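W.,

You were right to be curious about this one. When I first looked at the sequence I had no strong expectations either way, so I just let the prediction run and decided to look at it fresh. Below is the sequence, 252 residues in total, followed by the output.
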Amino acid sequence: MLCQERVTLYLSWGFIIGGFLYFLRQMTTRIPYGRYVEPHSPGVMVPAKAAWLIQELPSFLVPMLLLLTTESSSGLGRSLLLCTFILHYFQRTFIYALLTKGQPTPLHIMVSAVLFCSVNGFLHGHNMLHCVQYEADWHTDIRFIAGLLLFFSGMAINIHSDHILRNLRKPGEVVYKIPKGGMFELVSGANFFGEILEWCGYAMASWSLPAFSFAFFTVCSIGPRAYHHHRYYHEKFDNYPKSRKAVIPFIL
């Protein structure tokens, strides 16, 4: 398959513009999923496990299918980068989704996520397999090495933070508690910080517009959500640690 340069360019800029608009929207409202879903919200609700599995699956399945149906060798650097992308969504689809104890998700939110993940999976799979060109020794470049170190550090933080959140409540409990341990000692949105670190590392390692656009979209989408969580904890708990930041340790 030939590289669809215009498609990748338009989709990348769509992520950048869409991320900025999404950021502005979250400045005035909290997106209604998770803890921000009203108890008696109208509309169809999807159980959390099913919703997360269904909505994350395209970002795993689409690039995997592209990888399996591409005949030409993609080179070590591109193969490693695409595998890190697929690894993240394997974890989110088949591990996180099945372990989550979250609230049901509104159907329209899940459908929107399915569409986004389908486009995102295609963009990164197609870009890595058919568009980007790296030197044969790209896997030894400092940007590649530092980027992957950031990616896997962020992934470890994200997974560990999700583990802490899952174990805050005993079976049957529905109340929210103050998360403690790990990066939660520094920020309220430790899981979000980990994911932001992942995709910023991926952008550095791949050094391509689609990867940078997705990292930007990630910051714009879950950065404000971390801020909303931060405000929620301060409003709900009088003893919430004052030294914690929202999403970036010691800064924000």
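Here's what jumped out at me. The mean pLDDT is 91. And, maybe more interesting for your project: Helices lie at 5-26, 48-68, 76-99, 107-131, 142-166, 190-206, 209-236.

Coffee later to discuss?

I.
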